[in-house]
Amino acid sequence: MWGRPDSGGGTIKSGTKVKGIRLIDDGVGDHDIDATVPGFGRMQLKSSVVKKVG
Q1: Residue 31, SS3?
Q2: What's the whole-model pTM score?
Q3: How many Å apart are CA 20 and CA 5, to the nearest integer?
């Protein structure tokens, strides 16, 4: 990856599988899932855009 490791930005492709999913109460805005995204690291996600697979 280019730039600083803690720099924001980038796009996660549709269909990207995440690991280490945890539900959180104190997320930023309406983000209520904390997960590890390959190539991006730890990230908070919105449950409205997350789909359960399998």
Answers
A1: coil
A2: 0.69
A3: 20
